[in-house]
C-alpha cells in the first residue's frame, strides 16, 4: 500500500465491511470451501499420478485465505466499494492454493490435468515461468472458478492457484522476506543479484530434472 494513506477512507472501508459482517462471513466461508475443493483435487491427482510415475509430483500444498487487513488494503488501493459483491467480482486472490512440485514439467502436467476437469473454469492464466517477472519471480498462476455445493445452491467461487517448484518457492520466500512489498528500494546491483539467484535456481531445476530423466 502507498506510504500516505487516507485514514478516513481506510476506516470507512473497515466499518462498511463490519456493517456487512454476516454476508462477508458467509462469503469468506465459501472461499474456504473452494480452497479445500481445489486442494483435494490436487491431492487426488498426486495420488493417481504417483502410481503412473512411481513418484509423487507434488511435494507439498499450502493454502491461505487472504487476511482481513489485506482485503481492506486491496479495496483501498484499487478504490473498490467495500461490499461483498465487489469483493467477489473484483478480487481474485482471496482464496490461494500453492502447489509445490518436484520438477518444472510436473507443473505443466498437473495444471493440464487440473484444467481439463469439467467443473474447473479457467478465468486467467499468467505464466511467470516462461515469462519471469523483472524481479526474477517464477511460478505458474491460474485463476479458476470451482463449484461448491451448499445446502441449497451450487456456487462458483474463484481461487488463485500458484504452481512452482521447490527452488522457485525457496527463491520467492527469501525474496518476499528481503524485499517484496516492503517499500524498500534496493540498489540496481542488489536487484540484479536477486535476479541472478532466481536464474541459478531455474538452472538447477532443469539440471535435476535432466538427471532424473536420464536415470
Ligand atoms: P502474498 O503476500 O504472497 O499473498 P494482484 O494479485 O492482483 O495484487 P498481480 O500482479 O496481478 O497482483 O498478481 P500476480 O502477478 O499474479 O501476483 C500475485 C502474487 O504472486 C503475489 O501475491 C505473490 O504471492 C506472488 N508474487 C508476484 N510477484 C512476486 C515477486 O516479485 N516476488 C515474490 N516473492 N512474490 C511475487 P500477493 O497477494 O501480492 O502477496
- Unique ligands: ligand 0O2
Q: Judging from the principal axes of the Cα atoms, what is the shape? A: flat
Helix content: 40-55%
Alpha-carbon distance between the two ends: 49 Å
Number of strands: 5
If you average the pLDDT, what whole number results?
Answer: 92
Q: What series of H and E elements makes up the topology? A: HHEHHEHEEEHH
Using the CA coordinates, give the radius of gyration.
19 Å
Proportion of residues in extended strands: 15-25%
Catalogue the unreliable spans: none
Which structural category fits the helices and strands? alpha+beta
The spatial strand order of the largest sheet comes to 1-2-5-4-3
Q: Biggest sheet: strands, sense, closure?
A: 5 strands, mixed
Helical stretch tally = 7
Classify the oligomer: single chain
Any overview of this molecule?
With 215 residues, the chain is of the alpha+beta class. The protein is 53% helix and 20% strand. The chain is built from seven helices and five strands, in the order H-H-E-H-H-E-H-E-E-E-H-H. It has helices at 7-19, 21-53, 68-77, 84-90, 104-115, 166-178, 188-214, and strands spanning 58-65, 95-101, 121-127, 140-149, 154-165. Strands 1-2-5-4-3 form a five-stranded mixed β-sheet. Helix 1 packs across helix 3 and helix 6 packs antiparallel against helix 7 (188-214). The longest helix has 33 residues, at 21-53. It is flat, with a radius of gyration of 19 Å. The model has no long low-confidence stretch (mean pLDDT 92). The structure holds ligand 0O2. Residues 93, 126, 133, 135, 137, 141, 172, 175-176, 180 line the site of ligand 0O2.
